[in-house]
């Protein structure tokens, strides 16, 4: 979430003051990061805490269902908590963009960004956002490539010889996981930038044309 807010702040600077965000080493990067870990950090923690609490309640509901042979009320509670967690995570995705762009508090940011989309009639646009699916596919492909590289390494070297008789499978799995995780982290910055651009294009299209 901190990366999400930092990237949003950088994109906001590039949108309104392009000369201040002309490269990856520009002052806007440091300024955005400093805002994220200082004035905006409370909003980030609050939004993250809400999700964490709901996820903890989900785990309790899962444990209760396992110990109670699938009690009907527990199943309903688990379903409600799962839906609630998805809603809050979706809310966070756009609220944190406004936090990074303008420094609003968490609740105010969420209210403002969804009011913006409603006034623009963009509910369908954000609902049909396919960027996350595309970036996930890229991450999986990169994971497969890294897994294949690890498999080749296991064939031409003795690096995985201590893995027993399944060194090829272990090598591929290890490479796949490393590639998937590292690429997902990199792709998350792209997703944050795209979401920030969607918000900015809805709110200030004239600045982009200039």
From TrEMBL:
Give GO terms: molecular function aspect only: transmembrane transporter activity
Chief localization: membrane
In which compartments does the protein localize?
A: Cell membrane; Membrane
Q: How does it sit in the membrane?
A: Multi-pass membrane protein
Alphabetically list the UniProt keywords: Membrane, Transmembrane, Transmembrane helix
| Stored InterPro entries | Choline_transptr-like (IPR007603)
TM spans (from-to): 37-58, 70-88, 135-157, 169-202
The Gene Ontology CC terms held by the record are: plasma membrane
Q: What does this protein do?
A: Choline transporter.
Similarity annotation: Belongs to the CTL (choline transporter-like) family.
Q: Which PANTHER family match?
A: CHOLINE TRANSPORTER-LIKE (SLC FAMILY 44), PROTEIN PNS1
From the Swiss-Prot or TrEMBL record, give the protein name.
Answer: Choline transporter-like protein
What are the leading ranks of the lineage?
Answer: Eukaryota, Sar, Stramenopiles, Ochrophyta, Bacillariophyta
